[in-house]
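[Q] Does anyone have a clean structure-token version of this?
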Amino acid sequence: MKRILFDLTGVQPNASGKMHGGGKYGIVMFKEMVKHKIDMEAVYYSSKYLPEEIKEECKLIKLHDLNKVTLQDVLEKGHFDVYYSAMPSYTDALKRKDLKVVGSVHGLRRLEMPNDKNYLCYKQTLKSKLRVIYTLLFPKKWRARVLKEYENDLMQPNYHYIAVSNHTKASLLSFFPSLKYKNIKVFYSPSTAGDKNVLPYCNDKYFLLVSANRPEKNALRAVQALDELMTQRPEFKEYKVYLTGAEKGVFKYNFQNPDNFIFKGYVSEEDLARLYKGAFCFIYPSLNEGFGYPPLEAMNYQVPVLASPISSITEVCGDAVLYFNPFDYMEIKNRILQILYDKELYKSLQVKGGERFEYITKRQREDLQNFVAWICEGNF
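[A] Here you go.
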């Protein structure tokens, strides 16, 4: 069995918010590895939030506070065989050529993402706005720069990585053809499904959008579609739209029906589960995913899903969702009307969603066990 240093900084807050998909992924990976009593220690920042879900597991292993010691010092004194990061930041670890560095790749968003001027309609920092403008004005220069950044890490001989979906593996091989000589393993992102028996969040009839503050999740186009439907069809006004991750004012958009849009900001995992449970429909117009947890989380509660067919979403969702062009809010409107008025379609998506959830979670359970065995053996 190999001696492993686990990078917990990936489950701590990043620019996406207090909790994010990569953070959920890291939590499940960490808990599973602790459960298997692996020879393992971990690094984290005491200055940042550490999720409650792993505090008990943290008592069972030795932690190193990167606010007090450097990663290089930890690696030097700990005699580790493997450094693993669920949300990789590799530079310091890669300097040690005697160390095997393993990272979970969740997609190549900065390379795959189209340059979308709609990003400028979101509240964000000046630095973020300038970056969007630069990518729109100089797309080739931006791509060349990002390719170089990825290459600096991906081509290191002691770096071994796993892909969280077949799409992510294909994307790696597409952008970096020389990687065909590396054995890129695919282990599906582990399940983060909540308790099916929770109570619905409220009695409202509502559509649900998550991570609405993040431009790449593309919530604004769905908001435009829903808002327009409420204006055009009086019967539609009985529905609300709940948005997580976002506060009022996140969009540069003049709402026609502002009272129908409920901005929840950050919500706990328990409240998120209850929001899924009570939703009439879940809409996921994301422009890029390495895996894509939210549609599966909605399917866990047999909530019909409308989704973008981009990147890994079709791999995960199969034929259990109703797809739309995420760049065309009129097509989003059409799909919403379908789900609203076609009762047979609605019931079919409920059934298919439940079946798809069971199918994917079976693969997720198997892959989680296979990953733990693989990293412990260290034959890579």
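[Q] Thanks! Anything notable?
[A] The first helix runs from residue 21 to 35.
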